[in-house]
Predict the structure.
Amino acid sequence: MEKQQKKSNKKRIWDIIVYSFAGLLILLGAGLLISENVVFSDYSPPPTMPAQTPHITPDTSETALPSTAPEPTVTPEPTPAAAPMYIYFPRFEIQSLVKPVGLADDGSIGTIDAADIAAWYDKSPVPGEEGNSIINGHVRYKGKAGHFSVLKDMVAGDSVVVKLYDGTYRYFEVEKVEIYSIFDYPQEYLRAGGETRLTLITCTGEWNSQYFPRFEIQSLVKPVGLADDGSIGTIDAADIAAWYDKSPVPGEEGNSIINGHVRYKGKAGHFSVLKDMVAGDSVVVKLYDGTYRYFEVEKVEIYSIFDYPQEYLRAGGETRLTLITCTGEWNSQYGTSGERVFVICKPVEYVG
């Protein structure tokens, strides 16, 4: 039975995730982050919310003229609401273009690779329609402060305006601003159903040693076997890591082995940071069942490809996680770099 369970575990795939932030959510009825004084230009304020038309009670006295019964009409089918085009934060004089996104490869809501463009999750309703509309944006992207960097400074009562592609506007008021760990937040904030509201999301928090203090990296992990030459296989991508599927699932008994490129087709690989890791750094592995496994770096070692501890590539022994990448000068004779970086990690318990 135990062997069958281990065999089943090996069939699972996961993401290895380096986290360095907490999630910041704003809920708005019908709501962010700024760590510096940032002035955003090119702001065109939206129109103010139109006044409500006063209700007029019809005259039902005897002097009122009798009304004729209206002709029966056919109720037209409702026209689908247009997608959001801009989102405005009037108090901060910020407007962001909004683009639709789906789910990323790891199952999370996608983002837009820009500091000044927000991402509307297109499986959630158009803002103002029934349900929870979800829009996210970066706090910072490639060294530039993101438009959503103001989210943490919002307060209840602040206004948010969304312009749709049909030229109409939807108006919202911030109800609350909340900050949660990425591992512990209300799941309904990322669900499209429920009462009509708008949820805005960005990142915040200090770099935390639990989630690679100096790096913000997330890599998809795919299983590999042995290559034709008997070595552990690799994945032909800079941003995807390779789990040796004859080694245990990370956190299970034995040595789980994951490798990644330092560079692939001219692009820096996610595992290029391995040589800069130090003892005490953390690695988090997310399994496809939604659970997380936590590790702490014990040591970082560099060896020649001809002389390294053989146990680092064996699946047995004590429970640990071994991360591997290349380094050193290119060896044209063997078609690979002349050295390997080995990061040896021990399992630890997560303390929230």
